[in-house]
Amino acid sequence: MKRANFLCATWGATAAVLLLVASPARADDPAKILKSMTDYLGSQKTLSASFESDIEIITPELQKIQFTSSGQMKLSRPDKLRVRRTGGYTDIDLVYDGKTISLYGNDAKTYVQADAPGTVDQMIAAMQARSGLGMPGTDLILSNAYDELMATTTESKHVGQGVIDGVECEHLAFRTPETDWQIWIEPGEKPVPRKYVITSKTMTGAPQYTLRIRDWKTDAFADADTFVFKAPAGASKIDLESAAIADFDELPPGTPQGAKQ
Q1: Close Cβ partners of 100 (under 8 Å, ≥ 6 residues apart)
Q2: β-pairing, 110-115 with 179-185?
Q3: What is the rounded CA–CA span in Å between residue 188 and residue 198?
Q4: Could you read off the pLDDT of 7-44 as tens digits, one per residue?
Q5: Domains and CATH numbers, the chain
Q6: Beta strand pairing call for 236-237 and 208-217
Q7: What is the C-alpha to C-alpha distance for residues 260 and 61, in angstroms, rounded to an integer?
């Protein structure tokens, strides 16, 4: 009986996969659904949300290891952003006030600052270029998010529906030369992203970055100090180009970034 149940379950899963491959995607246009999401987020003067992120690495022994963090994001367009992320190896606070970006590592008791006058979009681009820090997920809040997300897309598909934190969402899948990525978008008048997965196609084992987002709000921030950085007592300032910037990464120092090809 157990073997029969196993075979039935296996056949059911196989049939579902074959049906997905053989059947055309639903008539819903994935680009149109994605555009509705980016237009909605881009039209909001203020945004806040909570998130959980998982980043995978592949060791030289081909073992897949996952590191998990939680955090909060607060955005005031066009030039203010605050992101707090707490994980097993880092506890960081990023504050941008339109003129200066400040990044504080609570575990290391150090912080970096750099002049970066402009918009949140410009700051994110500058941070990625200057420090080399990956900032996956920030592309969802860019003012030109749709263009950025679709810039190198070669294929898109409306997979169907999925339930994230009890909310039924539209499940979309996209392909680029270097990554596959998926996004789950809540339908309706407030089409916010609920889950975002980026899968590498250039590294052995196809490691993934997963972002789950909840508690979306568009209320203005009452606290005047929301985007003001105040260095904690005893914290020391380091140079942005310093190797100590690793203290602000999601991975512990010395973590291998991918298995040998």
Answers
A1: 113, 114, 115, 116, 229
A2: unpaired
A3: 24
A4: 444 445 544 444 444 334 345 899 999 999 999 999 99
A5: 28-248 (2.50.20.10)
A6: unpaired
A7: 9
